[in-house]
Design goal:
Blueprint: H1 7-16, H2 28-49, E1 63-67, H3 73-80, E2 84-89, H4 92-102, E3 109-113, H5 116-121, E4 126-132, H6 141-149, E5 152-163, H7 167-180, H8 197-205, E6 209-219, E7 226-229, E8 235-242
Parallel strand pairs: 1-2, 1-4, 2-3, 4-5
Antiparallel strand pairs: 5-8, 6-7, 6-8
Helix pairs in contact: 2-3
Length: about 250
């Protein structure tokens, strides 16, 4: 079976795995971003599913797949909102860290070290598929997306977050964040793998998935704060839904 896994990316995140849950360590931007994206995902799901986002666990009953779950930061946030979460990652060390951190949480979480191509081949499907900050790290984007698209149930919803392929995104995320400010380890991102929104929309549309919401994410270099913005030239998130009840075709 073809795989979108990049061995160099797996090795990079293996070396960083022990730092996942350190909010002041190399993954601090992800912890800050997680507050923004968790609120966005919660509010959009509640809007489209007719739920109250002010309830303690508004996502109760939903089966959520977190692709590229890393150490479980987003997975735990979704589980705290009531969802049943399956977190998957191709780095064994990440899964070990996620399982250890969730051990005493009492949350409805399941972690597995598996590629999305393998998971899709099992016929598994979910109410919601999260594909956050992953697509810029895969070796075969069309194949990866085709497998991801198979994993949503008829009528299901999903989210993608990544970096746009613009000069300002490269300057900000690579030169600024990695080399000038030192916010991220050098080599975290490669500009050639940044993905324009139109490319993701095309890969979604070919499997009868329609983008229904779009937002950018703003980073304040002075306060290290993050917030939503209409501008999608650097970081952005897309929300999509399945247009038909047909299963998507295999990659």
């Amino acid at each position: 079976m073809a795989s979108s896994i990049d061995p160099q990316e797996v090795e990079r995140y293996t070396q960083l795995a022990k730092s996942w849950w350190d909010p002041s360590g190399p993954f601090w931007p992800l912890h800050t971003l997680n507050c923004v994206r968790t609120g966005y995902i919660r509010d959009q799901l509640c809007h489209y599913l007719g739920r109250d986002p002010q309830q303690p666990q508004p996502l109760t009953g939903l089966e959520i797949l977190d692709i590229g779950c890393g150490g479980g930061i987003l997975s735990e946030a979704m589980a705290e909102l009531g969802a049943r979460v399956h977190g998957v990652d191709v780095t064994p060390r990440n899964i070990f860290i996620a399982e250890q951190h969730a051990q005493n949480s009492g949350l409805d979480l399941r972690y597995e070290c598996i590629a999305v191509e393998e998971l899709a081949a099992t016929g598994a499907q979910y109410d919601v598929v999260l594909n956050m900050e992953v697509v810029e790290h895969v070796a075969d984007l069309p194949g990866f997306m085709a497998a991801c698209n198979q994993l949503v149930k008829p009528g299901g919803l999903g989210f993608i977050a990544t970096l746009n392929r613009t000069w300002i995104a490269g300057f900000t995320a690579i030169f600024g964040a990695e080399y000038v400010l030192g916010w991220l380890p050098k080599g975290t991102h490669q500009w050639r793998r940044f993905v324009p929104p139109r490319t993701l929309e095309e890969l979604l549309n070919r499997d009868s998935l329609e983008v229904i919401e779009r937002t950018g994410v703003r980073v304040n270099p002075f306060t290290r704060g993050m917030s939503l913005t209409p501008y999608m030239g650097i970081n952005y998130m897309l929300m999509w839904r399945r247009l038909s009840s047909d299963r998507t075709s295999a990659a």
